[in-house]
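Sequence in, structure out.
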Amino acid sequence: MSRNPIVAVLHAHVPPSDELMAPVAARAEVRYTDEAGLSGALDGADVLFLYDFQTDAVPGAWHAAGSLQWLHIAGAGVDPVMFPEIRDSDVTITNSRGVFDGAIAEYVLAQILSFAKDLPGSLRLQQSHTWRHRESERVAGRTALIVGTGPIGRATARLLRAVGMEVSGSGRRARNADPDFGTITATEDLPEQLARADYIVAVAPLTGQTRHIFRDATFAAMKPGARFINVGRGELVRTDDLVAALESGTIAGAALDVFDAEPLAPDHPLWSMPNVFITPHNSGDFAGWRDVLVGVFTDNFERWVAGRPLENIVDKNLGYVPSR
């Protein structure tokens, strides 16, 4: 390339700091933009950095991306940019795989402990100044089925095993003697596996095969005392079916960090359910996470400029980064 490359950076409110972006600015023309200006920023751009990883503006601006070679998204999920035109293009997509693994695993463990020890119930008693002796559940010996066997699922499996839980996985292909999951069963065997699990953890990427994988029949296959935890994508779940399963007692509870429509509507019935824990899509957001995401991009940019292979290349047919 005879000229300096052009890098478009889409941000929601505050762009990444000049200090963090200095390695890129030293080698490229950097164009910062919000969604309204994306088409103009994409005109002639070689690289698009989606610092706003939840944006849905890329399809509408794609007509201006004639020079684009590489798109990097500052998140693990890439479904916002998996539209037909980009799948059919030569544009390379990379994500920020690996940044959130440990933090999300800790979140899952925290929610399991919250269910087992009824921490919300203890807080309510404390707030009413009520001294009431109660018993709680053990975590050790309970079974957890992790649906999604990528890096986040593996980090979660390792942490849950460390506290004595019996862990297995559900993924595209069945295999035994896995170092993290022990046994991984294929997706078509999911109903049978659900019936054995005390905790079901959804961490799968959103693809055509996984959309609404958790629906009425799936919840009906779970044991009555099961708890469901979703830290994957909101659209993995048919939300009305989840509400019905909770109301009927088909499952015992849910911890939900992601939803098919965000933010969750103030009048949504999930807010008022005593057996539901809700967080606003922040299970992986540890202190300093935004700076780490910029670092992932700048490191990959150095690879791109040097002509070296990029990290975390998404398989556009699968919709995620294949495991090594």
